[in-house]
Prior knowledge:
The protein has helices at residues 2-32, 37-51, 77-89, 111-116, 147-151, 155-161, 167-191, 200-210, 217-237; strands spanning 102-104, 121-122, 126-128, 134-135, 138-139. The radius of gyration is 19 Å and the shape is flat. It is mainly alpha-helical. Helix 3 packs antiparallel against helix 6, helix 3 runs parallel beside helix 7 (167-191) and helix 7 packs antiparallel against helix 9 (217-237). Residues 95, 103, 131, 133-134, 139, 141, 145-146, 149 line the site of one iron/sulfur cluster.
Amino acid sequence: xxxxxxxxxxxxxxxxxxxxxxxxxxxxxxxxxxxxxxxxxxxxxxxxxxxxxxxxxxxxxxxxxxxxxxxxxxxxxxxxxxxxxxxxxxxxxxxxxxxxxxxxxxxxxxxxxxxxxxxxxxxxxxxxxxxxxxxxxxxxxxxxxxxxxxxxxxxxxxxxxxxxxxxxxxxxxxxxxxxxxxxxxxxxxxxxxxxxxxxxxxxxxxxxxxxxxxxxxxxxxxxxxxxxxxxxxxxxxxxxx
Length: 241
Ligand code: SF4
Ligand code: SF4
């Protein structure tokens, strides 16, 4: 863990420079770009991800005590929460920059201790996603993760925990989202120059802003369409209203 933390801190220094460069670039784009419909979409994507971490975490409603056995194949009560928690180990969408841009620290969080674990805490109040502690689809600092991470449960999690849907249905929905993320990633890779350490929506916004020539029209439309489809799926099935 110590070696991992040191590595993460080194990467953090490098990222700070990239953050500054990207911020300057974003500012230039804001100054130079025209407010087209496409840009409006892009701001919408970023708004979702930036605003959501400020929402209070919600707990799934518990089932009535002594509820009769469910014969529909849905899991219930204690086992439902266990099944919901298992979803997360193969998901990571709320840590990898797809659902969120940032994680806002809460009063009980200790910024210094989190930084010592390798998290790149900014201004003692937040850290950016994709989270550097994410190992594949699992949290590398799980026992010590911030309060927001402990409290957040996406819609799929909540629905499995309440018995509204099966764990299998939620897992299929997560795979669907991951496949759509992979499509967006492949389009970004084909365009080149996208920084994988930035949130996905931000990377798309930057890439789309750079696809300005008539020859870029087809690729721009393809990327914008794929991102729109992904955002719709995330809004409908993962985000909390
Ligand atoms: S998006 Fe939902 S299922 Fe996926 S890791 Fe986060 S809470 Fe778990
Ligand atoms: S600290 Fe863990 S749970 Fe929180 S965003 Fe990072 S990987 Fe996810």
